[in-house]
Amino acid sequence: MAAARPPSSCFVLQILLLVVNFNLSLPYVLKKCSVCYEENPSADMALDCANRKIENVPKDIPKDAVSLNLNNNWMQKINGGDFSGMSKLRILDLTSNQIAQVDEGSFIDLMFLQTLCMGNNKLNVLMSNMFQGLSNLTVLFLNNNGIQVIHPTAFQFLTSLQTLDLGNNRLRQITDIQPILQLPQITMLGLKCNSFTSFETKDLLLNQSSNLKELDISGDSLTIFSISTPVFPYLQKIEISMCFCYKDLQWEIPDKQFLRNISYLYLGRSIFSFEGITKVLESLDSLHHLRLEALKMHVYEGLLSTICKIPTLRKLDLFNSHIKNLPVKLALCSQLTALDVRKSDVDELAQGSLGSMKHLQSLNVCDNQLKQVPHDVRSLRSIEILNLNYNYILELTCEDFENTTQLRELYLKRNRISQVDYCVFLNLESLKLLDLSFNQLMTFENNIFLPQLEILNINHNEIAFLEILDFLGFQSLKQLDLGTTFFDGMTQRSFHKVNKQENNISSRDRIWELKLLENLTIELNPRNLFSSLQTNYSRDIVVFKSMKRYTAICNIFCFPHQLADIHRAMTYLENFTAVNVFIEAPSIDMFWFNPDLKSVTFIETDFSEAGPELFLPIPNLHSLELSKCNISSLDFLVEANLTALRFLKLTDNELSVINDTVFKSFPSLTYLDLDNNPFTCNCSNARFIQWVKNNKQTQVVNAHQYKCSSSVDKGESLLLEFDVHLCWDDGRFFYFISSTCLVVLTLLTSFIYNFLWWHLTYTFHLFLAYFYDSQRRKKEVLHRFDAFVSYNVHDEGWVYREMLPVLEGEQGWRLCLHHRDFQPGKPIIENITDAIYGSRKTICVISRSYLQSEWCSREIQMASFRLFDEQKDVLILLFLEEIPARHLSPYYRMRKLVKKRTYLSWPQAAEHPGVFWQNVQRALQAGDSENTDLLIGPAGW
């Protein structure tokens, strides 16, 4: 075979370009802010950066936030690029900082901002281009800033502004607000507690009337309020009061038409004399809602006749007025639909004071000193809302609500009621809300019937013994807050009887079901613990199928089994909360009957020995809180397979070291709170620290405030301030060894590639040949040729002239010749392998040129490998020249074969060629037995 042209031995160095695809989004953990958690993952992003001692707007705020709360920080200035790129922002709260300057164009990127709160800052001057870019702003709060100067064009960009609060500033001239009144969409303007001495419309030079509807012009310096020009044709609401002191105000409205649309008026702190208020009221023809605050009692008594004569008046507020007893004259206001006398020291409503109010729908007497339900309530047949919270009512009588059949909401919170008889609510068939919390109830009657009641709160009472049967009359109940009460027969009673056959229940059982109840809160009272343990062994069974939210709270110590059965019946439960109810993790079967649970909270429960089995029945869990639960490892949560979990709160636990791979078990996690855990600031948390800083999906809330329980410098430090590079430096020797090995491996690879490449290639194909032959033997595949002829190109003439005519022409053998039978385009070594193992025999035509050929050497080596591997007669050596044995020494494999076996010599057969070819024929005809001579020598021919 012709000598092969090996490929170039040059070492080609290929440089791999690492293409880094930079993500412009910032890590999800923020240094000074947290992303408000939303149950809906697709909800808009809201950021909470309040109360963080921030001095500048954080640079790591995500650009796609729609709400940003920077309230109560230490910022002194808003710079030009602070909100760059935040085009989606809708709400920005900068309240209670120390902002004294806003650079021009600071808000230029906030083209869709709708609400801007900048109250309680130090903005003394509003510059001309301060609000540039805020063309869609509708609400602006600038109260409590000490503003003294407003540039005439300061509000020129606020073309959509509707509400503006400039209260508690230092504005002195009404002309300062003239540009504001010209805004096309402005409807509400707050100017409370400024330094205006007068508010007179004759000083305003407006091109057109304003669209203003609400105006608050309260202030201690104000002496004159005058509307003498038709600049406020749409004004509906006016608030005028003193901020701190009491003084008279001059009211000048020469034409009642200027205030023809006023429907709401708020007057406070005795800004007018009796005559002054009378004059004000007489100037209004469409007053619907009047609020009088902190006026003297004699003023009220004198005004009532005037007030009650206003035919359009429907709502009257006498807030914080210290009037003690409502005068009977109030009965003159028979047209009222709402009366509010909150916080007015009322200890009695005189009989007859409310009796004439046949249209009264809402009565608020909360935060007073009433000792009983006012007698006149009995005659309020149209009353719908009655608020008696924060009084001193001792009891409810059967006559209190006998005629209030339209009552829908009844508030009796924080009184001193100790008993409720069934007759009290006998006629309240329309009642939907009843609040009896924070009273002194000892019992709760079980025959109260309120068929429309949806919300019941008896939280914080002294009820020692309670049965579900007590609520049999509340068929429409949706929300129940039982507070500090205990149950007997809790799991045996319920509200509505259901078909027994449908539930496959014995006839001895009685089934009751809460059809509409969705929200149940129980706060267990340890003082009544033992009386509550009296178990009712009846056969009644409760079913809470409609329950969606269940909260159980125990202040000191409780028995979990008290709540177990009732909880199991809530087959549609979505939200479960237990605070200090369980001493240790509950039994593994607790949630077997609650497959729809989406939120679970355990607080003050020992989960140190918890296993994953508890959470396995609720694979759709979205929110999990385990606070104050002695958790030191998260392995049990990993094994619980909570793939849908999005919210995880593990505050106040014992987590010191966290493996970052833990969170790979929560592919949906977006919110993680690990506050107040004793983190160890060393290399054991290095991976976790990196994960917190770099992950783009899970927000680790307030991670930059996590403190270390122990640190390298023994001082107080923060977890994320730990230098993780120290951990990598500790492995310097390892990295040195690794680098050294890499260099040596590179050099070795280069050497092998340049000098041993073909040897390795040959060895590889030799292995393939062995494998190929083994497979052929297993499959017993037939050979394509009788013999493969291995020869050098210099001997090609002899092969075609002498060998082929005899072996193929006369004897009929099928020979494989590389120039004729090799597959074009196929690698040479593969063609050689296929030829040797695809033929029964291999004939090597040996000459000096053959021995000097590299590829011929490869062929005979491969053939000899097959010879000694199979131990069969597969090799025939034909010498075309006499080659002494000493000349074969450099070719150790050839010399070894010649010494071991005989061979055919063409020079010796010159006189008898026929015998030579007969010996070749005998060699080709030889079988494959192991005892067959492998080589045919001169003695044979």
Describe the structure.
The protein has a domain at 783-940: Rossmann fold. With 941 residues, the protein is α/β, with parallel strands linked by helices. 19% of the residues lie in helices and 18% in strands. Helix 6 (561-568) links the parallel strand 34 (549-554) and strand 35 (575-579).
List keywords for this structure.
Rossmann fold; innate immunity; alpha/beta; 941 residues; inflammatory response; 47 strands; 19% helix; disordered N terminus; immunity; five-stranded parallel sheet; elongated; TIR domain-containing protein; 28-stranded mixed sheet
Outline the fold blueprint.
Layout: E1 34-35, E2 45-48, E3 65-69, E4 77-78, E5 91-93, E6 101-102, E7 115-117, E8 125-126, E9 139-141, E10 149-150, E11 163-165, H1 178-181, E12 188-190, E13 198-200, E14 214-216, E15 224-226, E16 237-241, E17 250-252, E18 264-268, H2 274-282, E19 289-293, H3 297-307, E20 315-319, E21 325-326, E22 338-340, E23 348-349, E24 362-364, E25 385-387, E26 409-411, E27 433-435, E28 455-457, E29 479-484, E30 496-497, H4 500-503, E31 510-513, E32 519-524, H5 529-532, E33 540-543, E34 549-554, H6 561-568, E35 575-579, E36 599-603, E37 623-627, H7 635-638, E38 647-649, E39 671-673, E40 679-680, H8 686-694, E41 699-700, E42 708-710, H9 725-729, H10 732-755, H11 757-779, E43 785-790, H12 796-810, E44 815-816, H13 818-821, H14 828-837, E45 839-846, H15 848-852, H16 854-870, E46 875-879, H17 892-900, E47 904-905, H18 913-925
Parallel strand pairs: 2-3, 3-5, 4-6, 5-7, 7-9, 8-10, 9-11, 11-12, 12-14, 13-15, 14-16, 15-17, 16-18, 18-19, 19-20, 20-22, 21-23, 22-24, 24-25, 25-26, 26-27, 27-28, 28-29, 29-32, 31-33, 32-34, 34-35, 35-36, 36-37, 37-38, 38-39, 39-41, 40-42, 43-44, 43-45, 45-46, 46-47
Antiparallel strand pairs: 1-2, 30-31
Helix pairs in contact: 2-3, 11-14, 11-16, 14-16
